[in-house]
Amino acid sequence: MNTIKTLLAFTVGAWLLAGCAGIGGESAEQTQQRYAQAMAEAQTAYDKVYAVEFAWRDTQDLMKAAQKAAEKGEYDKAIALANQSRKESELAYNQYLEQKGAGPRF
After folding, report:
1. How many CA atoms lie less than 13 Å away from 51 in the CB half-sphere?
2. Is 75 exposed, middle or buried (0-12, 13-18, 19+ CB in 10 A)?
3. N or C: which end of the chain has fewer CB within 10 A?
4. Residue pair 39/67 in contact by the 8 Å Cβ criterion
5. 3-state secondary structure (DSSP) of residue 23
């Protein structure tokens, strides 16, 4: 019985602590700065893969969608799209490195 009470008290305490940690949160300015950072990283990664002519088809569309979401004030969505764009560019560049010497072998 004591174990159940202890477990319940611990669970409620952890729940309250987690709830209090979310109070205040991130300011709008901080969110905008995170978006700007994510977008800058996405653009840098895209420029790198574009320079070797190996950019994927939809990556730039993701960056445009991120920019539109930010213009609407949807910064969490914009950050997610910018991060997805960066990851696609990084994957495309890795694909380029792996396949740059590919060709027919006779």
Report:
1. 8
2. buried
3. C
4. yes
5. coil
Token pair 């952890």 is at which residue?
A: 14
**Site of tokens 């380029």:** 96
Decide: helix, strand or coil at residue 102. coil
Q: Residue 40 is which amino acid?
A: A
- Within 8 A by CB and 6+ apart from 82, the residues are 35, 38, 39, 41, 42, 62, 63, 66
Residue 33 to residue 28: CA distance in whole angstroms: 9
Look up residue 100 and give its two tokens: 């740059």
- How many C-beta atoms lie closer than 10 Å to residue 36's C-beta? 15
> Per-residue pLDDT tens for 26-61?
898 999 999 999 999 999 999 999 999 999 999 999
How far is residue 14's CA from residue 74's CA, in Å, rounded to a whole number? 30
